[in-house]
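Case study B.
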Amino acid sequence: MAELKLSHIYKRYSGNVVAVTDFNLDIADKEFIVLVGPSGCGKSTTLRMIAGLEEISDGDLIIGSKRVNDVPPKDRDIAMVFQNYALYPHMTVFQNMAFGLKLRHFPKAEIEKRVHEAAKILDIEHLLQRKPKALSGGQRQRVALGRAIVREPQAFLMDEPLSNLDAKLRVQMRTEISKLHKRLQTTFIYVTHDQTEAMTMGDRIVVMKDGFIQQVATPQEIYNHPKNLFVAGFIGSPAMNFIQGTIKEEGGVLSFTANGISLTIPEGRHEILRQKGAINKPVILGIRPENIHDEPVYAQTYPGGVFEANVDVVEHMGSEMYLFMDVSGQQLTARIVARSDVKVGDRPKLTVDMSKLHIFDKETEESIF
Amino acid sequence: MRRSKINIPAMIFLIIGAIFILFPLYMAIMVSLKNPQELGQSILGWPSKIFWSNFPNAMAATHYWQAFTNSFIITACAVILTILTNSMVAYAIARNMHKRFFRYIYFYFFAAMFVPFPIIMLPLVRQMSHIGLANQWGLIILYVVYGISFNVFVYVGYLRSIPMELEEAALVDGASRWRIFWQIIFPLLAPINATIGIITAIWAWNDFLLPLVMLGDPGQFTLPLQQYALQGQYSTNYSEAFASYLMALLPMLLIYVIAQKWIINGVTKGAIK
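Model:
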């Protein structure tokens, strides 16, 4: 059980390639932290630096109270689960799980006990004498987890452990890993490019892009208050709609105006827009698809948020439906209730939930609110 | 039930290939079972009476058991040392190909494959005798060293297909580099070890030229060298010669059959998806 502190961590490769820049993060004991971002954002590199598989170019990595920059992986007391499982193919499941304990000269009885306990937790007791090639993808993933569990490490590092599984199994293993975290009460650091995994599993999420941390916050905070345009667009599915336009003031009323759309900004937001000098400046409006409604009750609540759009595509998802629309050349997506009778080619009246509006500075791409 | 399709052109090709291999073998067996008179009448025909005594005669003429022991020691040592050392060299190269030094070493070995042996034969023999190794131990060293260029080429190709994650997992598990090689990588090299082992064994067992120039003491002669004794200045006893060739061939056939089961694809299957 340990706290981790990453302080001004850099990773530079030869040829002036910087994979991670000034990474600062304090991870609390027993916390489940998720590093998320697109490919090449430096999340796996950061994890590998924590594991000791990559050298840290600059900065300090502290596990517990010890600086471990120069400590080899085996002495960091961490366990890692790899994307492709990395099970030793010539060893049985039992030998795979026992390997780390044997190397640490644990007594045979203790090894037996730990392996069987871990196998029981993961429901793989009946597979202990099999070789990895005789296991399914899900079973291999469990063995990989088991190999980490038996070590009882200070922290678990997981590098996209579910990305090789099919969609159904992924959802199942997601909940199992969350349960495992609660059961083991250990620090988990989890890397994924899947924002759903990040949102559902993490106590806190670290969103990364191009080697920089974009935002560190709880899933709710990240979803409701993204710090910038990238975070807003990356987290959430379908992604947040962005409309380029300008904030204009007329007789004390502020409105967002873009080609073919004009929305009245609620009074409560006026102050911050003025403070940030966003009036008469190009901005980007962000609205999540589920905050666009076609029910008249919303039009009554937010009369300033009503607009019309041409529906290009309708996708029925069962419990809800997605509308893909065109508003004067800008593409918008709405997630509305399934009972709606909107069809392709319609031009319905839709309402933006103005309390859920986001405005971003076009120049800096930072959130204004 | 779907009937399995036969690829007729491939089948014809395989049958022709099999005939090319089996025909000389058939001829060798027929020749070794006839007496010289009958051999004069027909080479390919079935013997009217099997002449088993060619075998004991050949054994006596070639000091078979002594030569067999010499060949066996040289071959076994060459195979074991080749597999142990060349795989280690290849591992170091394969995992450090991004470093200039190891890349140059790799190409240096690779280039050595194109140097014909007769060109370096005499300087090599002189060097070996100069350091007192013109004997069977020197011969073993030469097999290990001279095979390294081809073997490293084969090993490196295979090693690069073994996922790095396996080693990283072992590193995190607490293994040293040495242990990773012997407990994780070396067992995964089984198919290549078998291939290299067979190639080296056949080479060392059948080689005539290197033992001829390296070994002075008749007590150290290998089977091919002793078989040379069956070729007289004026006549050659073909029946006895072929009997001895067959006796020399058997151990190699046996090794191939045993090692064949190791030459299987997909040993790493299950390590990664």
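The CA atoms of residues 122 and 176 of chain A lie 9 Å apart. The remaining cases will be described in the next quarterly update.
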